[in-house]
């Protein structure tokens, strides 16, 4: 009874909330300078499969007092779990392809993720089934939510019972189904959720929580997954894993005795006192709710294949071709009032002349774009509300001045081009917080995809300066705004700052999010077939960072 | 309303700008705008009618100004727009409880705003360039041959702001000292680029209470054959008295400031350089 592991091992997919959110695993990037001086980025996706959805991770995992297993916890996964490498390699370019495609329509409205419920007796192989479904689906942005995270906090009396193996962890009363339903509803709404981390030694919830956000498919698994009617009606597909009870007992004995060093008597006592009755009274009868019953658990590849195929069909029906739609939407109307265009002064026109010119060398491009960025940021700041204050001056007279009404301002840059604007924000606001969102265009579909996200914990209280250097169709910006709204940022508190936009982009964003303030230095008429702005500026990120393809 | 050459410009803000140019001078001198409903063009800043007279070479069709002339100081004395943002920067600079590090940080920001506006006064010409997408862009190009001149000491605080915008601009200096007894300003030192008479001069001096120092400095520039209309004075705070003195002494000099207020924050140089 070593009890060495008293907490979940950190999952790479969904972070423990130490103050930051993560939804995507960090990619291990190696930069190597090729002989032409170009930087090539190669990537090894660090987790070929979700770590916590795998089999028990270490044989040294100590036995815990709890009768429950500690194998799987809730995870979010933002990469396909196997096979196809999520990057495209060109001759000189490497492009990641496994981001999250749009999960909302072109009005910025949300489309619900698909929720699969997996139920079955203890040691029936629910996790294996869930994992195999994820593998078979091979889609990014899958969230696995485990009922185990929702054990109730034990009272002192229950603690003593648990210590004597007399607390019934298999009874419905042991779970907080209200919180389960609340969490699932929020996940379905696409909102960020804080999933509790249950400590099986202290039987308390950790003060930390696991932040989950952004799922196209949610798998909810647990022995009593079908018990609560509230939860049941949130499930789009219900899968029951039906494994022979002898086999389940054998697995349980193996797991508890061989891997956790527990006594045979204790395991059997618990099995007959709690586990088996719970199965007979609560779990087995819930089989009637199931759409699909999978015999023999994870070994049943035919069943898993069928499930995956069905889910894929459902996902395709919900799929979007957003950018094309955005580019073709025709708005024959006046510019929206949320657009704040900088006055076209000689300096701004002159700066545009420098950075739009294809022959401008990179150092000048960087210098002049920085100047232009500074002007955008200053202009956007001037649009914020200010309140009147009176200060004392060294000259002895009071001075009627102004002070910014909101102190909490946070920059969020849309990688990669948006990052170029962070510095200007830091130059005008001391100690400003900076969040990042990585959105890349999938070259196969032309759609923007969300890859990575890191935002301050309390972002909902902030006024956000969302930064992207250029906005063509507005697809990436709309995705980023959607992400912020999902994190409960108020729409009025978002200022989108960019150097160059198109008529279309302005209208698309203003149409989807009329309260978002749009600040830019120029609006160009249209985009070309490659979604580049015309006359435009070229690929801003490539020109700024020097990663233009060499064949141009 | 007086008008000779006028151009209609349509902007996203549904406003019409009548931009006047006075015969002979090369500058955009005044910008009146009216809030009114007009036809909205999908494109930005297009001339409505091709038969309008072509404005002087430096005046581009798509250019707007956001500067406001100040009542009573002539057409060349202008304020940068008094946004809440600018007001906040002024408040921080004036607040006696502002720490030195904050003071310098926010003073530099205000300086940068004034400098950016000042650069808008420089001459330029139209040009067309090709973008990486292969399209033409009607841009403009600033004419080379400008320089900055700072009045020691507080004017030097503005040099960095200018250098941040123009990396390799030439900088001259003038040291003007007040006689302790007579309070008369006198020039102690001046060093300029050789060809300063051929250049536009951005004269930098942040605080004007009486205007005497600036008058001395402009006199020195004129001794070096700099034309009055080629001088653009960049200033942060001016008193009405100083504004009157300078505009009557040099009616054709361009002056740009952020605030006209009876009490000038005279502690600026001391606090910026930390010698208080």
UniProtKB/TrEMBL annotation, chain A:
Function noted in UniProt: May contribute to UTP accumulation needed for blast transformation and proliferation.
A single BP term in Gene Ontology: UMP salvage
Taxonomy, superkingdom: Eukaryota
Phosphoribosyltransferase domain span: 343-547
Phosphoribulokinase/uridine kinase domain segment(s): 115-303
Cellular component aspect of the GO annotation: cytoplasm; nucleus
Catalytic activity, reaction form: uridine + ATP = UMP + ADP + H(+); cytidine + ATP = CMP + ADP + H(+)
Protein name (Swiss-Prot/TrEMBL): Uridine kinase
Subcellular location: Cytoplasm; Nucleus
Originating organism: Scylla olivacea
Pathway the protein acts in: Pyrimidine metabolism; UMP biosynthesis via salvage pathway; UMP from uridine: step 1/1; Pyrimidine metabolism; CTP biosynthesis via salvage pathway; CTP from cytidine: step 1/3
One Pfam family named in its UniProt record: PRK
CDD domains for the chain: PRTases_typeI, UMPK
Biased composition (Low complexity): 8-17
Ranges of compositional bias, category Pro residues: 47-58
One Gene Ontology MF term: uridine kinase activity
Family annotation (Gene3D superfamilies): 3.40.50.2020, P-loop containing nucleotide triphosphate hydrolases (3.40.50.300)
Location of region: Disordered: 1-94
Subunit structure: Interacts with RNF19B.
UniProt keywords, alphabetically: ATP-binding, Cytoplasm, Kinase, Nucleotide-binding, Nucleus, Phosphoprotein, Transferase, Ubl conjugation
EC number: 2.7.1.48
Enzyme kind, highest EC tier: transferase
Family: Belongs to the uridine kinase family.
Keyword Transferase in record: yes
Record has Protease as a keyword: no
UniProtKB/TrEMBL annotation, chain B:
Key words of the record: Cytoplasm, GTP-binding, Nucleotide-binding, Nucleus
Family: Belongs to the UPRTase family.
Keyword Lyase part of the UniProt annotation: no
Superkingdom classification of source: Eukaryota
GO molecular-function terms, A-Z: GTP binding
Native organism: Scylla paramamosain (Mud crab)
Keyword Lipid biosynthesis recorded: no
Pfam family, one: UPRTase
Gene Ontology CC, one term: nucleus
Intracellular or extracellular location(s): Cytoplasm; Nucleus
Protein name, entry field: Uracil phosphoribosyltransferase homolog
